[in-house]
């Protein structure tokens, strides 16, 4: 049932999403989001001439705080077919938590589509009402880039108010930051600088633990080599190869 609903709704809603909504869609994903983030840095900096400020944050307990009534109202704005709406309602309300009217399960295919539909309200607000040209989102992680720090500081409370009043969501208070790219911006597992990016330290530590836990199997090593190929990682690559005994 979940897969059938996803196949029916996904192509339609994909057309309503902004270009830089990057999670759980055909042709998009983490790597595409990273490429777009790098492209935004180049555009905002005018090829490293200007200082780039990045406001980034994520949503506190994202899946667990999706409000069922708000979600169903959003879906109903786009889908006139009552049978489909009833099916969506059954799936949404089948999730059991301490609050019967809030939350979607993590990892569920339909949930991933539904949270994109939910957050599309925020995406449209940021892009078209706040006129944030360099905005992108991957799941509950989002960033806005600008040369104007004051502008980012001004839109922060406006975005918080929209999330709270319209979607009953909140930014994670410990994940809000406004900083320059030159200082290193941690986004989607990588720390980004003006001319390169490096893997986040915690990700590197977890990677080596996993390689060791899986007895340094070649397929595990190759998987991580693929991951780090998306950044500046020659030294890290050599270390992984030695760890996996693939380097003489």
From TrEMBL:
It holds the Pfam family RVT_1. It comes from the Bacteria. Residues 1-192 form the Reverse transcriptase domain. PANTHER family: NUCLEAR INTRON MATURASE 1, MITOCHONDRIAL-RELATED, PROTEIN YKFC. This is Reverse transcriptase domain-containing protein. It comes from Candidatus Uhrbacteria bacterium RIFOXYC2_FULL_47_19.
């Amino acid at each position: 049932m979940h897969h059938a609903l996803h196949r029916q709704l996904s192509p339609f809603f994909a057309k309503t999403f902004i270009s830089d909504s990057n999670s759980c869609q055909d042709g998009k994903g983490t790597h595409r989001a990273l490429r777009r983030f790098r492209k935004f840095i180049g555009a905002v900096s005018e090829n490293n001439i200007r200082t780039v400020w990045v406001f980034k944050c994520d949503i506190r307990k994202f899946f667990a705080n999706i409000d069922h009534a708000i979600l169903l109202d959003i879906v109903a704005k786009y889908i006139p077919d009552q049978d489909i709406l009833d099916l969506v309602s059954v799936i949404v309300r089948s999730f059991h938590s301490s609050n019967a009217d809030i939350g979607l399960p993590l990892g569920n295919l339909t949930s991933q589509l539904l949270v994109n539909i939910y957050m599309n309200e925020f995406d449209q607000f940021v892009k078209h009402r706040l006129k944030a040209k360099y905005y992108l989102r991957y799941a509950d992680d989002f960033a806005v880039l600008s040369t104007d720090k004051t502008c980012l500081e001004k839109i922060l409370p406006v975005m918080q108010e929209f999330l709270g009043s319209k979607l009953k969501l909140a930014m994670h208070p410990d994940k809000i930051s406004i900083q320059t790219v030159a200082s290193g911006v941690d986004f989607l597992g990588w720390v980004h600088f003006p001319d390169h990016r490096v893997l986040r330290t915690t990700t590197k530590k977890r990677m080596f633990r996993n390689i060791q836990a899986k007895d340094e199997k070649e397929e595990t090593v190759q998987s991580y080599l693929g991951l780090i190929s998306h950044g500046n990682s020659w030294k890290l690559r050599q270390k992984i190869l030695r760890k996996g005994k693939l380097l003489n």
